[in-house]
Amino acid sequence: DVVMTxxxxxxxxxxxxxxxxxxxSSQSLVYSDGxxxxxxxxxxxxxxxKLLIYQVSNLGSGVPDRFSGTGSQKDFTLKISRxxxxxxxxxxxxxxxxxxxxxxxxxxxxIK
Amino acid sequence: EVQLVxxxxxxxxxxxxxxxxxxxxxxxxxNYGMNWIRQAPKKxxxxxxxxxxxxxxxxxxxxxxGRFTISRDNSxxxxxxxxxxxxxxxxxxYYCAKGATVENWGQxxxxxxxx
Lengths: 112, 115
Prior knowledge:
Chain A is mostly beta strands. Chain A is 0% helix and 48% strand. In chain A, strands 2, 4, 5, 6, 9, 10 and 11 form a 7-stranded mixed sheet that branches. A 4-stranded antiparallel sheet of chain A has the order 1-3-8-7, with no helix packed on it. Chain A starts with a strand and ends with a strand. Chain B is built from no helices and 11 strands. The radius of gyration of chain B is 13 Å and the shape is globular. By secondary structure, chain B is mainly β. The chains are: A mainly beta, B mainly beta. The A-B interface holds A 37, 39, 41, 48-51, 54-55, 60-61, 92, 94, 96, 99-106 and B 35, 37, 44-47, 50, 59, 61-62, 95, 97, 100-108.
């Protein structure tokens, strides 16, 4: 199985700051069709996960452009510019290139 | 608006069976693969099964292979997960999620396996 190593496990940031979350995979996530199926999710407290970014860098529906994703092959980053209170929760990366789909262990974002 | 609504939650004894449903609306259900993903209490996310849009292929996590069966009825816009030989470690919130991008999730249903 592809291991997704997500860091840091937690972050505490002030409103308006920027943060980055790293996700590294044990194998390349480039699929045979040339696409990279690496996505980012946010699970707000008491809620089901919500898609933020799909295929590395594409914003999900209704997701503000404060969120951005970069990376390639095995190394990916989620950046949140100008953090807002509503951004708190647990962020997960997930790869859907290889079966089984595997998730990072999560990064808990707290607001100072 | 895409909606995924799971049902079938409950408390069952080890070794018993249970069936979850996920009713989809707001998109053409028959065009999309669908996933079941679970989350044990205070834990991370675990993908457990995928079914292709036309049921031609099904994939399972090793942790549930041989015990769980994913299926769908495109005429009813409904996804199913039949769970047999349930174990305490199957206790979790179960979510259905749409597509290879897991772009939409249901609200989840809680399955508790305990004697």
